[in-house]
Design brief:
The complex is a heterodimer of chains A (176) and B (184). With 176 residues, chain A is an all-alpha fold. Chain A has helices spanning 3-25, 30-65, 67-82, 89-95, 99-113, 118-128, 133-143, 152-174. Chain A contains eight helices and no strands. The chains are: A mainly alpha (176), B mainly alpha (184). The interface between A and B is large, with 94 and 97 residues.
């Protein structure tokens, strides 16, 4: 399984190499395109910055109030049985609804336990292998006014929950 | 969330901690934005290079045979093929801004052939379930957040995330194909 960690180290440099090689072969102005793309990225961060501030404040306050612990205490009998980190439950559920709210909870976990703790690694992998199902469903189906979705939600939820379980299993396997 | 926090804090006696938490979190959020400003700009810059060099187009052409397997209803040359391919490729590369418009275009193209306009077709279901099974191979923002919080090896989660992303997509396809088998 350690080849997966090797792959982790390789993938970003390889992506750089592949894209730059492809672009040079196509004789495109690489530097100009990079600058204009980086500008877009800059703009994106600027537009999401207020959201991040708002959500992190909300999550920070929610944690200080003790609400997350209350929820945790409520469900820990079930999650402990499965070996599922209770603190990750709010994030797991929020991930399906809103990407930015999930990010707020993810950062909260990083801050409390560190990104290299078991739960920190687990939520990192989980965030990478799940999707905001409810948000995507509503946007795409609303755009063509479809109301009967014929098990689409069931399929998406099955894919996502198997992603969560595989993340948990793989984190146990890779980072004992 | 904030209202909930204040109400709960009133019950648990944590009111004094709230002000500190709010101010501390706001400060932290700005620090975080500075980190991701660098990483995200670098990444979108790189992906724009790929996009403008025609990489998305080249890759979506290679996707053609796969699309025929996934959407047998559509035949060989359906106008929905192109936006579907663009949407998948954009999602795989993590180009969120390019994924949504092409996704909506794909849905509209599929809707044209739909006999009952309020019900999803098999192709729509396949497209949506794959789309929502998480396609993005490298979630660079999570790597950036890990850097900000002092991870010794921020990128170590890319490999596992990548494998699981592929596995969930296979599960999504299998789910739809099984339903089709039973004519649901």
């Amino acid at each position: 399984m350690s080849w997966l960690l090797f792959l982790s180290d390789l993938i970003v440099p390889l992506t750089f190499f592949g894209i730059l090689l492809f672009a040079f072969m196509k004789k495109t102005p690489v530097y100009d395109h990079f600058i204009s793309g980086a500008k877009d990225g800059f703009g994106t961060v600027m537009t999401i910055a207020p959201t991040i501030i708002g959500l992190m404040v909300a999550v920070g306050m929610l944690r200080a109030s003790g609400a997350l612990e209350l929820l945790g205490n409520l469900i820990s009998p079930v999650t402990d049985q499965m070996g599922y980190p209770t603190e990750a439950v709010p994030l797991t559920l929020m991930r399906l609804v809103s990407s930015s709210a999930a990010t707020g909870l993810l950062l909260d976990i990083f801050e409390r336990y560190g990104p290299d703790s078991f739960i920190g690694r687990f939520v990192s992998v989980m965030m990478s292998s799940t999707e905001t199902v409810f948000y995507t469903m509503s946007i795409y189906f609303l755009s063509v006014k479809i109301t009967k979705t014929r098990f689409t939600l069931a399929g998406a939820l099955i894919a996502n929950f198997s992603g969560v379980l595989m993340s948990l299993w793989l984190t146990y396997r890779l980072f004992p | 969330m904030i209202l909930l926090a204040i109400v709960v804090a009133a019950f648990t006696g944590n009111i004094p901690a709230l002000t500190n938490a709010a101010i501390e979190s706001a400060r932290e959020a700005v620090m975080l934005c500075i980190t991701i400003l660098g990483v995200l700009s670098m990444w979108t810059g790189l992906l724009t290079v790929a996009d403008r060099a025609g990489m998305v187009k080249t890759l979506s052409r290679k996707l053609k045979p796969t699309l025929r397997y996934l959407f047998p209803e559509l035949g060989r040359n359906h106008p929905a093929h192109e936006p579907i391919a663009t949407n998948f490729i954009a999602n795989i590369l993590g180009l969120g801004w390019a994924a949504t418009p092409s996704g909506i275009m794909a849905m509209k193209a599929l809707q044209k052939d739909n006999p009952s306009k309020d019900t999803a077709t098999k192709s729509m279901r396949m497209f949506m379930v794959i789309n929502m099974s998480s396609l993005q191979l490298v979630t660079i923002s999570v790597v950036a957040y890990r850097t900000q919080y002092g991870s010794a090896n921020p990128s170590e989660i890319i490999g596992p995330g990548l494998i699981i992303t592929m596995a969930t997509t296979v599960i999504a396809v299998a789910f739809c194909k099984v339903l089709e088998r039973f004519n649901l």
